[in-house]
Give the backbone structure.
Amino acid sequence: MAHVVLVALEPGQHSERALDSALSTSAERGGRLHVVTVVGGYDPFQRLEYAAEKHQLHLEREKAELEARVQAARARFSGAAAPAPVVELHVLVGPPAKEILRLARKLEASLLVVGRGNRALKAVLGSVAQDVLREAPCSVLVVPD
């Protein structure tokens, strides 16, 4: 079975260490790397999810930003012994932990990599990292920012 590594990045945040770790781990394991960012947050009436499903939400800017971050990581990785893995990008809409976990299950990820955000640290980990750790269907690597 091919190894599938999923790394979750915050939009606009710089969790490059998490991305770099996921890229090198995926290359070492000879697997595929999926990079996800989730737009949204607290949305009790699921308006953002509805707009995304109806293609009324334009996410080109977020996808372009994600692509640029992956290209920068590939440039940092270029001197590594193993070839860079195939990378697939995902821009999702909704509550971050819920969407990250849904994608991990769908991809049958063998490893989920998340950054440990610096915002209020909520104990030691951010709230998204806490939720992902609690409910992940696979191993989780938490990388400090």
